[in-house]
Amino acid sequence: QVQLVESGGGLVQAGGSLRLSCAASGRAFSSYAMGWFRQAPGKEREFVSSISWSGDSTYYADSVQGRSVQGRFSISRDNAKNTVYLQMNSLKPEDTAVYYCAASRYYSGSSYSRYDYWGRGTQVTVSS
Question: Of 55, 73, 92, 104, which sits 20 to 30 A from 31 (CA to CA)?
């Protein structure tokens, strides 16, 4: 069992930055791949980024609703702290959403249905 708690969301102006954190409970955090997803009101949950258990491999959505996060977002993890991060720079109003982290024992891709554990999310609001 893994419990995930996101933090770091908030209100920021366009062009600003936020760093989201996801703290995991449990001893096996380092064996889980981790992902970040987001969901805007009235929209489906969409993949943002993921990272392998070791941190050696990272993945980013090529296009999230037509808008690339590559080059603006960066995922990382600290297995000693049981924490995964999402650094978000050059934020845009269309990045406004609830951001969720998720854990998967065997999968590090973009399909949300293959993640086993989810946090409750943290709200990110970007004003224009």
Answer: 73
